[in-house]
Every structure is written in C-alpha cells, then in structure tokens.
Amino acid sequence: MVRATIESLFGMEGNVPLTAVREANDWLATLSREHPTLTGFAVVDAFAGEEAAREAEWAIVDLGLTGLVIDSSRDGKLIADPSARPTLDVAARHKVPVFVHPVAHPNAEVLNGTGNLGNSLGVV
After folding, report:
1. Are 38 and 2 in contact (CB under 8 A)?
2. Residue 76 burial (CB < 10 Å; 0-12/13-18/19+)?
3. 114 phi and psi, to 5 degrees?
4. Could you list the pLDDT tens digit for every one of the 124 residues in the chain?
5. DSSP for the chain?
6. What's the half-sphere exposure (Cβ side, CA atoms, 13 Å) at 37?
C-alpha cells in the first residue's frame, strides 16, 4: 500500500490548499497504476468538511484510489468532530477502508505505549 498523511505533507495545523492535496492524490494514483502490486490510498484533510468529502469522492471514483488515510487530529479537533463526518460518509458510501493515522502530537510522549514516532509516508 502506498499512502501519505496530511500531517506528514503539511504539518499539524493550518489550512491545506486543495490543489496540493489533489497533486498528492494524483501522484499516489499514478504510482499505484504504474506499479500494480501497490494499492493507493488517498490523503484527505477530513477536518475540511464538505471540501474534504468532495476530494475523497474524486480520489475514490475518478482516480481509483481504494481507501482513505486521515489524521486523527488537526487544529485541536479530533476525529469525532462534525467537520470530519462528510469524509467518513463518503468512505462508508463507497465501502472503502479508512486508516485513521495517529498524529505526532507534541504531548504524545505522555501516553503509555505510544512507541516511537514514525514517518507516515510509506509503502506497506
């Protein structure tokens, strides 16, 4: 599987330009098409509400990416925030998996068992 996260590409806070997310998803789709043994998962800023849902729809339907990777937190919001719901609804409608990636929060070391922070751009 080939994937990336919003955090690894753009950091943990602030607005993420849709054009940059689209460029990343284009790259992920191209890579997975050129290497059929790789499955591409779209990167989506789930906390961007309806804009994120449209990107998820485009990545799944038009690009053929087979799942989503979203961050578990952004700008102080957690995955249960209502802004993430439209993206999760798109994934449910298309029956694709969603990987909710733990972010490298500055206070992460206070949680037991978190292990070492890693890079979330990779091939699995």
Report:
1. yes
2. exposed
3. -75, -20
4. 888 888 888 887 788 899 999 999 999 999 999 999 999 999 999 999 999 999 999 999 999 999 999 998 888 888 999 999 999 999 999 999 999 988 765 554 444 444 444 443 444 4
5. -EE--HHHHH-SSS---HHHHHHHHHHHHHHHHHSTT--B-EE--GGGTHHHHHHHHIIIIIS----EEEESEETTEETTSGGGHHHHHHHHHHT--EEEEPP--TTGGGSTT------S-EE-
6. 2
